[in-house]
Design goal:
Elements: E1 6-9, H1 16-29, E2 33-36, H2 40-47, H3 50-54, H4 60-69, H5 77-96, H6 104-115, E3 122-125, H7 133-139, E4 144-149, H8 152-160, H9 173-190, E5 199-203, H10 204-208, H11 213-220, H12 225-228, H13 246-261
Parallel strand pairs: 1-3, 1-4, 2-3, 4-5
Length: 272
């Protein structure tokens, strides 16, 4: 089983949370951990910079507060949260002593590694990771990426019906379409720099239909079929001839092509 992390990507309302919970249970039962909305890499990117290292001050309090304000979820998350705090506190002491070096990417890699040390497999999902992909490539150079894609019309329909305190949520169809286009475009820019055996693009409806299970199992090295059995779309499928802006249509076509071309990696599935 590979110990390189699996990062689940996807724009908002594309099914990533449902898949993340399934992966969380599969990783947990295999002795590892997959965090649902872990956010730690996102927070390190925001709160760990070269100026902080020069000033000898790692913003541990801010990171921990952000983790607790909207806590990550999933089985085993309490143990993960404790390991994160231990790793952050060790790093903060070293930063204060001037013993952590001057490269924020190196320190971020250390914190993420120590937070998952000793686990046979680990991973994370957070939609905003799509906005920081070059940083991921630097901090986690061996990471594997699962990119979950969904027809923009379906994602937009789900986005506009979303409830709760989400001040960043678009309120018009065109704004939601543009947001989908921008977020997914980040993946298309980043993906060519990742070796083919470390990236997998899968379609949400195909995943729910069981058509992607074998490839996803091969990619993660874990038995996933029992955990994916309950995945079902909650909204009707988009019409094949759904009218999309030209740029959005081009992004969707590229994602569909990528999903069709994603190979089944030669990884042995762990059977339990």
């Amino acid at each position: 089983m590979s110990t390189t992390p699996v990062i689940l990507l996807g724009s908002q309302r594309c099914g990533t949370t449902a898949l993340a919970y399934a992966m969380n249970m599969a990783f947990h039962d295999a002795g590892g951990h997959f965090t649902v909305n872990g956010k730690l890499p996102y927070l390190l990117h925001r709160w760990l910079g070269r100026d902080d290292l020069t000033a000898r001050h790692l913003r541990t309090d801010e990171i921990l507060h952000a983790l607790d304000r909207r806590p990550p979820d999933g089985a085993g998350v309490e143990r993960w949260r404790a390991r994160v705090e231990e790793a952050l506190r060790r790093a903060a002491r070293d930063v204060a002593e001037g013993a952590a070096g001057d490269d924020p990417a190196v320190l971020a890699r250390r914190i993420l590694t120590e937070s998952n040390e000793g686990l046979p497999c680990w991973g994370d999902k957070y939609n905003e990771y799509l906005l920081h992909l070059p940083w991921f490539g630097e901090v986690l150079p061996d990471a594997r990426y699962v990119m979950l894609v969904r027809h923009p019309a379906e994602a937009v329909r789900s986005m506009l019906s979303w409830t709760g305190d989400r001040p960043w949520l678009p309120t018009s169809e065109r704004a939601a379409v543009d947001k989908w286009t921008a977020w997914n475009g980040h993946w298309l820019e980043f993906a060519p720099g990742i070796p083919a055996d470390r990236r997998l693009v899968i379609d949400y409806r195909s995943l729910c239909g069981g058509e992607e299970t074998e490839r996803l199992e091969a990619f993660t090295g874990l038995e996933l079929r029992p955990y994916l059995a309950g995945l079902k779309p909650r909204t009707p499928a988009a019409a094949p001839d759904a009218d999309l802006p030209q740029e959005t249509a081009a992004v969707w076509a590229a994602l569909r092509d990528a999903a069709a071309a994603s190979p089944a990696p030669l990884t042995t599935t762990t059977q339990r």
